[in-house]
Amino acid sequence: MSMNTQGRPTRSEAPADPGGYQDTFSGSRGLDQAEPLLFERGSTDTTGVDLPEPKGTKTRLGGLDRTAEIGLPGLSEPETMRHYVRLSRKNYAIDLGLYPLGSCTMKHNPRLNEKVARMPGFADVHPLQPQATVQGAFELMGELAHWLMTLTGTPCVAMSPKAGAHGELCGMMAIRAALDTRGESGRRRVLVPESAHGTNPATAVQCGFTTDEIPADATGRVDMAALKDKLGDDIAGIMLTNPNTCGLFERDIIEIADLIHEAGGYFYCDGANFNAIVGRVRPGDLGIDAMHINLHKTFSTPHGGGGPGSGPTVFSDALAPFVPVPYVVKDGKGWKMVEHVADAEGEPFGRMTAFHGQMGMFTRALTYMMSHGSDGLRAASGDAVLNANYILARLKGAMSPAFEGVCMHEALFNDNFLKDTGVTTLDFAKAMIDEGYHPMTMYFPLVVHGAMLIEPTETESKDGLDRFCDVMLALTEAAKAGEADRFKAAPVHAPAKRLDETQAARNPVLRWTKD
Asked: What's the distance, CA 372 to chain centroid?
């Protein structure tokens, strides 16, 4: 049996039931079409486009003209269109079904947001336009900044960070700048709880800090005794996620903030899970000094995925002087962008990005806020918590919750219910694919053995939750009934069957080569 570096099986050595596409002559199954690579479909000897040779022009390539064949396959327009449509049908999406993946929160993006983001003046704005021509865009950024500060109870926000981890970097760079200004450059130790998001310690190290892990107590929250033991005059601060990665609210957060401040450090709060408390708790009232906000998690913008993400970072009065440029301000003549450190108030630590932020994400987030209103945002966070607790209540009798009591926005289970069944967390997740569901987050957080983290978000209906829970209960019953073979073979109905994931990660085939 193949094993990965964590010691869990990746696939059985017994051949899986091929299922899928090998059981038809065409390779297709009904409306689900088999689709090879473009290079396997097309021919490099033909082209789908005919262009006349240019006349009366001279090359400006300085001898760098291509002389060899380009090597791209030629297909007709319908063939090309069908190729990408067929590929799109193989991708799981929130528009297709419930997305239980926790931590990333793939949630519904309202079409109203998309319509507003495509309005002229928003969709075609350019970062190098004269400031007089983008007053509306500046006003939108100022309005969004206002509501982010209002909802978090903070006096300042940096809008330019491009994603959650980038927002973390912004917050920790401000903390470092504040410490250096105080003449305390020796403070370089950052406390990071076990239940924090994985990017937190990486961000701290990137900023030149060292990290010191704080264990969790039996309830899945920060062990307060361990925290107090680790305080000292070299403490720069703490990076705490609240609600944490176990889906639990840190009940001692105010005491934690007081202890860190008394020790001379700053409190960075990972705001990725702000969607669980928005409209109900203002993090600024809890004593945080910096917190990033994932607009895709809390305010329904499309998930970044390496693309147009946005992670604004809010700051307390203590860190406000060090907020980076650029930012928008309003004076008697209208809105303007403060571009340079020399023109800014306070002592900005510098600039993080070439331009001002992600306009499309700003537009979508503000549209979501304005369409919901303060009561709607409060209801959304309540529904997110309600949905997660509904799943917890329906599944806890058959599956094994990681911790006692209610949860916040995500329900966390361990693999105790699979003990002696021969079925692992990975096997269980693969079987979910055959049932038409994307698997939940597996094996994370690391503080829970065989973790299964389920986050339904506020956008799922009770009918959708019941259908999902019915499937999870049926799979649990099958595992306990000794049907391990079906789990070891899964998925048999997916385009790609059971893979050796460890070898795929270590030896990926990234380029097609002709046999």
From this structure: 23
Q: Is the peptide bond before 348 cis (omega within 30 degrees of 0)?
A: no
Question: Residues near 360 by Cβ (< 8 Å), separated by ≥ 6?
Answer: 117, 122, 123, 301, 308
Q: Identify whether the C-beta of residue 152 lies closer than 8 Å to the C-beta of residue 315.
A: no
The two three-digit tokens of residue 141, written as one number:
């950024």
Summarised one tens digit per residue, pLDDT across range 248-293 is 999 999 999 999 999 999 999 999 999 999 999 999 999 999 999 9
Residues of the chain with CATH 3.40.640.10: 113-368
Q: Which residues contact 382 (CB under 8 A, 6 or more apart)?
A: 280, 458
| Contact between residue 238 and residue 289 where contact means Cβ atoms under 8 Å apart | no
Give me the pLDDT at residue 41, please. Answer: 84
- The token pair at 452 is 């299964």
pLDDT tens per residue across span 315-355: 999 999 999 999 999 988 899 999 999 999 999 999 999 88
Domain 113-368 grouped into CATH 3.90.550.10: no
| Nearest-5° Cα angle at 182, 181 to 185 | 80
pLDDT at 304: 61
CA distance 513 to 329: 54
- Under 8 Å CB-to-CB from 328, ≥6 apart: which residues? 138, 141, 142, 145, 159, 335, 336, 337, 338, 356
R_g over Cα of the chain: 26
Q: How far apart are CA 281 and CA 110, in angstroms?
A: 24
How many residues belong to the chain?
515
Q: Which two tokens stand for residue 65?
A: 């003209």
180 to 291, 347, 350: CA distances (angstroms): 20, 11, 14
Q: What is the pLDDT of residue 4?
A: 42
Could you please state the CATH topology (level 3) that the domain comprising 376-497 is classified under: Aspartate Aminotransferase, domain 1 (3.90.1150)
Contact yes or no for 320/156 (Cβ under 8 A): yes
Every domain of the chain with CATH number 3.90.1150.10 lies at 376-497
Question: Mind spelling out the 3-state secondary structure of 279-318?
Answer: CCCCHHHHCCCEEECCHHHHCCCCCCCCCCCCCCEEECCC
Residue 254 and residue 207 in contact, taking contact as beta carbons nearer than 8 Å: no
Angle, CA of 372, 378 and 380, to the nearest 5°: 70
- Here the tokens at position 6 are 């964590």
Distant-in-sequence, close-in-space partners of 426: CB < 8 Å, separation ≥ 6: 8, 9, 10, 442, 443
How far apart, in whole angstroms, are the C-alpha atoms of residue 126 and residue 359? 9
Give the percent of the chain with pLDDT over 90.
69
Q: Yes or no: say if 425 and 359 are a contact pair by the CB < 8 Å rule.
A: no
* Residue ranges in the chain modelled with pLDDT below 50: 1-9, 12-21
What are 71's two structure tokens? 């090597």
